[in-house]
Structures are given as structure tokens and as C-alpha cells.
């Protein structure tokens, strides 16, 4: 809060260097209860330094501190409590938000820096899992937050489009595949082929060696193998892009694992030159004992490279291409070991930029307490889930506002917004229990609740004749507007926090709080009453719409004007 600065300056003036402004700033707290003011300075540290009683010091300071930004400054035991001048602060905050509009809360500390965000990254010929959904939603939000902080963001979809599974798939396809079926429902068919391969391979072991053969052919650039692989990939991507379209997510690069094939030898060669590679039974590995980690396997004895080799290569390629300031991987916590190894190999190889890599992990999506799985044919088709959410949102809207225009468009925003918000409202490392009923409620901590609050505020604006200009803003002094003002004032700091911790939940939680405060205001204050504070009240409503809409946008959620 910028007023923390003001308060510490005012206190520092009285202390003549006993404590620095910085120290004072770090000591100042935001009191729990409104009656204790807006800011509090506890006097314990000072008391220790001066060898005097904190209560006495608080009393003395309270008498001396004067600052026009404060209505009053009073002692409360060992605390000095400052009460901000509501009129002045609210005028200030509302004018700022209305002037800056959607730029409110933007920063430029990321200017001239690149940040690479690797997210979503589903596997070709496999279903888009719940884990990929989480990665997509979290990564997309982090990209928007980073952009809001001024960074140039490179959004990378590191497709899982290479690996021995393609050998298996080709064998299965050649034995049991049906082109028409694959065309009609590629992901489902390809998954079934894959599952069938594993079932049959238990009986007929030679299938495994056949699969290895076909993968070798693929790696060697065999025409037939390549054509099949490309076909599988194209069909899968068509399916994935439906999901991305629904979620409104775009990428700057789809360079997946296969992209790095030609660069793999170079990577392994470099690591050899750095003296990192040892050979054990024909395989090339990097020993990571000193990091208390299992060795990182680079190349198997049959010459095949691995997921880790491709990630090492991708990291080097990305650093060369983007000179990133940060490179983050939004991937479930079950891959923590992999990313630890990745970073450690680069560190061991003295790549100074290794420290710029960050794994941003997240928990599982649960259904009735159990991990939602997409393996072994038990596919929860994500598209279906999304369509259900949209249908349920539409039913809710029919109930609430049956005359609404563009019902389908709004239902889409609400249904999808509900899924995204539900995912982002908890700290990302916690598991999420998946319940369509819960996430679609219009009350409680849900996306629709925030969207509804925004639409309600918009409808007030439609009813008012006050123009959106700032000259008539005198400020507000009542008790219901004050929490709303303070909340609006906090938005820019929330964004920095969300960025620093890679935690969109900071913003989601904030939006719930702001919505609650605003709805209380709405229930208790006659906003459209024609008196001299009308313009300030309208400015407050307008500012709320600006912040809610921008906050939702940072989560990847749309805010309908009407719902
Ligand atoms: N395709 C992988 C999976 O589904 C995720 C890839 C994440 N990104 C990366 N650079 N490793 O498990």
C-alpha cells in the first residue's frame, strides 16, 4: 500500500534516525479490525532500542505524528494506529483507476526481459488429461500475469510427440487399425490401439521388439513410419485445438519433443565435453550423486534418447533463442524429480542460466477423493466435461434471467469461467476436488459469483446518467465504501504477489473478497440516489467493474456485461 510509505515517512520524521524509514516500513502492519485503523506501527523494536516502555512511546508518537493523509493517529497500548483520510484516499484511488482503466495494476519491471512459459504440453495420440487441463489453465494465467508485469512472454506447448510409444502405436495400427474409425474419433481410437497393444504384448512378447524396431525406423526417418506419425499427430492436434479454442488459449510455439531430434547429438556431445557423461553398460548417463539424485539417462544402449535428453536440448535451444530471464515449466508435481535432474545436469555443466529454470508444480484433480485418471481406457473426455459445464451454466441462466440476450454466448463464458476459476482459486499445489455443481454456483467462492457481481455493477452503470469522467469525484466517507476502496487500492500489489509466487490463486481469492465487499455495499447503500456524492459512488461502481474484469482476464476468464 502506498500509504504505508506515507505513514513510515511521518513516523520517521519523529524518530530522528533511531529507525530507518525502511525498518519502519517493514514493521508496519495492517490491523485485523477496522476499529484499530488502517495501519498500525507496533513500538516493541523501538522500545528495546530506547530502553523505554512501548506503551509510553506509542502515546508520545501518536501525539506527535501529523500527516494530512491521516484522519487521526491514536495510541492503542503499544501500537500507534493510523486512520487514513477516507475522503482523500478514495478520491485518489477512484481517480487513478478511472484514468488508467484496464492499465490499472500494470507494471514495467519486466520490460526488455523474456519469460518462457512451458505449459499444457499434452501427449500425441493420448487423451488430454485433467493434469494437462490444470497446466493449461495455470500456465495461461501466469502468461497473462507476466505480461501485465511488462515481460515479453513466449508461450510454448512442448508437445509429447516423440518416444517409444509411437513404435507401439504403429505396430498396433498395422495389426488392428481402422482408418475410418481413427478419422471419426482419433483420440479414442488411438488410445484403444495403445491399450490393446499392452494387453496383447503381455501374451506375445515379440510385439515389444517389433515396437522398438518401428521406433528405430521412425528415428531413422523411414517414410512409412514418418507418414503414420504425422497423421496421428495431425489428428490429435485437431482434437486439442478444439479444447484450446473453448478455453481461449493460444501458444507462440508448438515445438514439441520431436522438434529437438536433430539437436540431440549436439547436446550429448556438449555434455561429454563438459566431462559430465559416463558410460554404463552401453548407456550414457550423467551421475548426480552430489545432488543426491539418481543419474540422468541421456541415451540408452540401443541409441534411443529420452524425455530428459529432449528437455535438456529444449532448455539449451530456448536459452539460445530467447535469452530468457526466466523459464518456467508448469507441470504436475509428479515430475519434480525430472526437473530437479534437468536443472542439476545444467548446473553441473556450469550453464550459468540453469538457475533461471523453475518448475511450477501443481496437485491432482480428484473425483470423490480419488485421482481422476484418463489411462487404461477410462477416459474422462475433457471436451464432454466442458460441454456439460456450459449446458449447466445455461440452465442456471434460464432460471435467473430468462430474457437475457446472447444466452449461449454468456453460458459459454460462465461455464468455462467456472471450470477455470475453480481450478485457480486454491493454491496450485493443493489437490482440486472436481464438482461441476459446486463450481457453477452463483454464490460462494466461484467464478460465476465474481462474473455475476461484475454484471450487477455494469447494470447499475447502465441505469445511471453519470458520464465516465473523473472531475466530479469528491471522495467517499461512509463505512460501506471504505472496504471496497481499500480492496481496489490493493489490486496492483496482488498482481506482483501472484507473479512472484507463480500463484494465480492470489488474484482469484482477491476477486472473491472484492466481490463480497462490493455486494455488501450494494445491499446497504442507495447508489443512484441523486445527491452530491452520486458521481463518487458511480466512480466506485465503475472502478469495481474495471478491477473485476481485469482480474478475471488475468485468470483467463471473460466477464459478460449481462447475465
Ligand atoms: N508431455 C508431458 C506430459 O504429459 C509434459 C511435458 C512438460 N514439459 C516439459 N518440457 N517437460 O507428461
Automatic annotation (TrEMBL):
Coiled coil: none annotated. Gene3D superfamilies: Arginyl tRNA synthetase N-terminal domain, HUPs, Isoleucyl-tRNA Synthetase, Domain 1. A motif ('HIGH' region) lies at residues 122-132. Its main location: cytoplasm. It is an enzyme of class 6 (ligase). Keywords: Aminoacyl-tRNA synthetase, ATP-binding, Cytoplasm, Ligase, Nucleotide-binding, Protein biosynthesis. GO terms for biological process: arginyl-tRNA aminoacylation. It catalyses: tRNA(Arg) + L-arginine + ATP = L-arginyl-tRNA(Arg) + AMP + diphosphate. The keyword Protease does not apply. One of its GO terms (molecular function) is ATP binding. InterPro entries: Arg-tRNA-ligase, Arg-tRNA-synth_N, Arg-tRNA-synth_N_sf, ArgRS_core, DALR_anticod-bd, Rossmann-like_a/b/a_fold, tRNAsynth_Ia_anticodon-bd. Its EC number is 6.1.1.19. Residues 5-84 form the Arginyl tRNA synthetase N-terminal domain. It comes from the Bacteria. SMART domains: Arg_tRNA_synt_N (SM01016), DALR_1 (SM00836). It is found in: Cytoplasm. Residues 450-563 form the DALR anticodon binding domain. NCBIfam families: argS. PANTHER family: ARGININE--TRNA LIGASE, CYTOPLASMIC, ARGINYL-TRNA SYNTHETASE. Belongs to the class-I aminoacyl-tRNA synthetase family. Monomer. This is Arginine--tRNA ligase. It comes from Aquisalibacillus elongatus. The gene is argS.
Amino acid at each position: 500500500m502506498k500509504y504505508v510509505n506515507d505513514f513510515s515517512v511521518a513516523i520517521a520524521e519523529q524518530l530522528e534516525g533511531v529507525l530507518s524509514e525502511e525498518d519502519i516500513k517493514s514493521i508496519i502492519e495492517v490491523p485485523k479490525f477496522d476499529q484499530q485503523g488502517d495501519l498500525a506501527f507496533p513500538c516493541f523494536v523501538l522500545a528495546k532500542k530506547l530502553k523505554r516502555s512501548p506503551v509510553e512511546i506509542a502515546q508520545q508518537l501518536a501525539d506527535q505524528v501529523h500527516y494530512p493523509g491521516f484522519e487521526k493517529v491514536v495510541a492503542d497500548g503499544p501500537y500507534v494506529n493510523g486512520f487514513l483520510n477516507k475522503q482523500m484516499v478514495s478520491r485518489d484511488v477512484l481517480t487513478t483507476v478511472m484514468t488508467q482503466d484496464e492499465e490499472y495494476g500494470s507494471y514495467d519491471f519486466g520490460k526488455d526481459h523474456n519469460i518462457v512459459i512451458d505449459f499444457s504440453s499434452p501427449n500425441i495420440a493420448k487423451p488430454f488429461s485433467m493434469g494437462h487441463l490444470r497446466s493449461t489453465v495455470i500456465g495461461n494465467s501466469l502468461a497473462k500475469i507476466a505480461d501485465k508485469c511488462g515481460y515479453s512472454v513466449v508461450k510454448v506447448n512442448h508437445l509429447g510427440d516423440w518416444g517409444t510409444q509411437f513404435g507401439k502405436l504403429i505396430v498396433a495400427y498395422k495389426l488392428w487399425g481402422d482408418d475410418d474409425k481413427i478419422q471419426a474419433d482419433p483420440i479414442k481410437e488411438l488410445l484403444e490401439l495403445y491399450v490393446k497393444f499392452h494387453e496383447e504384448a503381455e501374451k506375445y512378447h515379440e510385439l515389444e521388439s517389433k515396437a522398438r524396431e518401428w521406433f528405430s525406423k521412425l528415428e531413422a526417418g523411414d517414410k512409412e513410419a514418418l507418414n503414420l506419425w504425422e497423421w496421428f499427430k495431425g489428428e490429435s492436434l485437431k482434437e486439442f485445438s478444439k479444447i484450446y479454442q473453448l478455453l481461449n488459449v493460444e501458444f507462440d510455439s508448438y515445438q514439441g519433443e520431436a522438434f529437438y531430434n536433430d539437436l540431440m547429438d549436439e547436446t550429448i556431445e556438449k555434455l561429454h565435453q563438459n566431462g559430465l557423461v559416463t558410460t554404463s553398460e552401453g548407456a550414457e548417463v550423467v551421475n548426480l550423486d552430489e545432488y543426491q539424485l539418481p543419474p540422468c539417462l541421456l541415451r540408452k544402449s540401443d541409441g534411443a534418447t529420452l524425455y530428459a535428453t529432449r528437455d535438456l536440448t529444449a532448455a539449451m535451444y530456448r536459452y539460445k533463442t530467447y535469452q530468457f530471464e526466466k523459464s518456467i515449466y508448469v507441470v504436475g508435481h509428479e515430475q519434480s524429480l525430472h526437473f530437479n535432474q534437468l536443472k542439476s545436469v545444467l548446473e553441473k555443466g556450469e550453464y550459468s542460466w540453469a538457475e533461471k529454470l523453475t518448475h511450477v508444480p501443481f496437485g491432482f484433480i480428484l473425483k470423490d477423493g480419488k485421482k481422476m485418471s484418463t489411462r487404461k481406457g477410462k477416459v474422462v473426455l475433457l471436451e464432454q466435461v466442458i460441454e456439460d459445464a456450459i449446458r449447466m451454466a445455461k440452465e442456471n441462466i434460464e432460471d435467473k434471467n430468462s430474457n437475457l440476450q446472447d444466452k449461449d454466448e454468456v453460458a459459454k463464458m460462465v461455464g468455462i469461467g467456472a471450470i477455470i476459476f475453480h481450478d485457480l482459486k486454491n493454491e496450485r499445489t493443493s489437490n482440486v476436488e472436481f464438482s461441476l455443481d459446486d463450481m457453477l454456483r452463483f454464490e460462494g467462492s466461484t467464478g460465476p459469483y465474481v462474473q455475476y457481481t461484475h454484471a450487477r455493477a455494469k447494470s447499475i452503470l447502465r441505469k445511471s446518467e453519470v458520464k465516465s469522467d473523473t472531475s466530479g469525484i469528491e471522495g467517499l466517507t461512509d463505512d460501506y465504501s471504505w472496504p471496497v476502496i481499500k480492496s481496489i487500492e490493493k489490486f496492483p500489489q496482488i498482481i506482483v504477489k501472484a507473479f512472484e509466487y507463480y500463484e494465480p490463486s492470489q488474484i482469484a481469492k482477491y476477486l472473491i473478497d472484492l466481490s463480497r465487499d462490493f455486494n455488501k455495499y450494494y445491499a446497504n447503500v442507495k447508489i443512484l440516489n441523486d445527491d452530491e456524492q452520486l458521481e463518487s459512488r458511480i466512480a466506485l461502481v465503475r472502478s469495481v467493474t474495471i478491477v473485476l474484469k481485469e482480474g478475471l482476464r488475468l485468470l483467463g476468464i471473460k466477464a459478460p456485461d449481462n447475465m
